[in-house]
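Hi V.,

You were right to ask for the full record rather than a summary. Here it is.
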Amino acid sequence: MRGVTEDLPLTGDAPLLDDLMPWSVAPLRLGRSWIVAPDARTLRERWARLVAAEGAEREGLFRGSRARTTGSSVAALPGQRTGTGRLAREAGPCPEPVRLAHGPFDEQWLLPDHRLIDAARPELWRVADAHQLFVVEQGYVPGAAGPALLVTAALPDGRSPAGRPGRIRPLFRRPGGQEPNLAPGLLGLLSTRYGHEVAAADLAAWAVAVARPSPAGCRVPLPAEPGVWAAGVALGRELTEVQLRGARGGARPRLPGGRRPYVRAAIPARPTALAYDPVDEVLSLDDGRISPVPAAAWAYEVGGVRMLEQWFAHRTAAAEPGTLEAIGPAAWPQEWTSELLELITVLALLAGREEERTELVARAGAAGLGAGTLREAGVLPVPGRARRPASVLDHQEEGPEGQFMLL
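Predicted structure:
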C-alpha cells in the first residue's frame, strides 16, 4: 500500500501541524513490556505472580530501571484508583486494566499504575475522557508509505512502528471537550474564509484526510476553496470513524457483503507463522485460514512496517522463560480472532480511500492558505501558553504513600 508521502507536489508554505495543534506530548515510556498485553486476563495473572514474590525475586520480576524500582515513591495517575505505597510492600488486588492504543491499529491493555511506568505523561491522563480524541503524529521515515496521522479514542502510547519518535496531540486541552487544542484565532479565520462555523472536530478531520509527512514535521495544507475544505472534512470524518471502530457512538467498520473476511479454517492453539496468498486472498496462520483478505489490507503499512505482520508478532513473539512477559494465554483466544477480522476490515477500508486522499492533498495544496497567510491574520506565531498543558488541576490527586496533594 502506497500512501501520501512527502514526494507529492505542494505549493506554498503549508503550515505544520505543530502550529495548528500546538500542545503535544511525547510518547509514553513504559519501561517494561510486561505491563501491556493483548488481553486483560494476562495482566491480572502477571500482577498476581508479582505480588506473590518477595524481596529480590519481586525486584527481578519487576525489571527495574533508573526511573522505577519496587522502592519508588510516586503519585497516582490522574483518574486511576491504584496504590501509591512502595511496590515492594504491595499485596493488594490488580489495578483494573485500561485500553491502550499500543502503536498504530493495535488496541491492547495496560496496567494503569504509576509505579510501573517510567514516563506515563500524567497530563494526558488528566484530559482523557469520553469527549477526547487523540491525534497521533507518526515519526518521520523518509520515503515510507502510510498515513502521517492516526486517531484514537483510547489513550495512545505514541509508539512508532519504525522506532522514530512521534507526538500525541489531544484535540481538547481540558476535560469535557473544552478548549480546543488549536492555535488561537484559527477557527475564526477558517470560519470567515469558508463561510460557515468551523469546529475543532472539523479541523481534526481535515488533518486526518490531508496530512503529509515532512522532515520538519507533519504538514497540513489548508485550501482556499470552501468546496475543497468540505470534501476533505467529509472524507476525514469517514476515515476517523473507521479508525475509532465504534468508539464515541460511531458505527463498527464493515466491508460490503461478499467482501467481509471470515474464518475458513480454525486458527490453531499456538500459531507461529503468518502468510498471505494474493491469488485466493487468503491469510494463513499456520493451518488457520481467513478470507477474503484484500491485498491492500495485507500490504497496508505505517512508517514502512506492515500492520498485519506487526499485530501478529505482538501476540506470538517468544518471551524469556520465567519472566512476567512469558505469562500469557495457553491457547489463541477467540477475542483475538475477532480483533484480527476487524483489523483486516479497518485496513481494507482505509486503503480503499488512499487514491481519493492523494487527489485531495494535491487539490488542497494547489493554492492554499499558507503559513504566511496565518501570520498576516495574527494566528501565527502561536503564543507560548498554547504549547503548554492547560491548568486543569482543580481537584485533589493522591500523592506518594497515600498523601493527597492539592495542585
